[in-house]
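Q: Here's a chain of 206 amino acids. Please give me its 3D structure as tokens.
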Amino acid sequence: MFSDLPDQRELIDCQRQLIVPNSEEILGGVFSSRVGVVVDNEENPGPYDAVVEAVTRKSERQSKYYLEELTLIDILEYVKSVVKKATPYSPSRYNSLVEKRWGLKGRASAPDEPEFMVGLSDLLIQGANTCQNYALLAGATIRLLQRQEERCGGINPDFAVSIENGRPWTNHTDRHVYTTLNTGELTYTIDPTHPFVTQDSAKVRA
């Protein structure tokens, strides 16, 4: 999916919003785990555009075939399917890359400083994927689809997208993370460990 992309551009040196549950924005933000993973859609849009275009084409094809408007959960299932294909799970590659670039071994985590940040696009192209890449790419894809609401596969821009913390891993400092979309009435969960997108009554945060 990520072949024939232009050369990677360096991350812009700027203040970035930390991606935490219920963040106002995912695009351009940084997710802090062993290193800071930046959703670098501005610097390196190629991988993000490829995923969004794949979801849009799939949505248009299915809508034309069934001659009916797609539901939100249909679109989220396409997001889940395309993102899963784009982020084959490979924690060994991730650990190897983190050790090679920053000398971090085992459970060691880097300080929250610019030199310890990496673009999500870089990890995607390297195939160094964990659940955080899946969650961040799914969240970024939904946000980008919200910008093209008028196209087939577009999503209401008023819906809130969030990267949520799940259970802690027993053998790693990182927690499992996943993506949610809150419509105000329902919360949809996109989790790589679940076979389907799930939905539940929206939970109001205190």
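Q: Can you summarize the key feature?
A: The chain has a mean pLDDT of 87.
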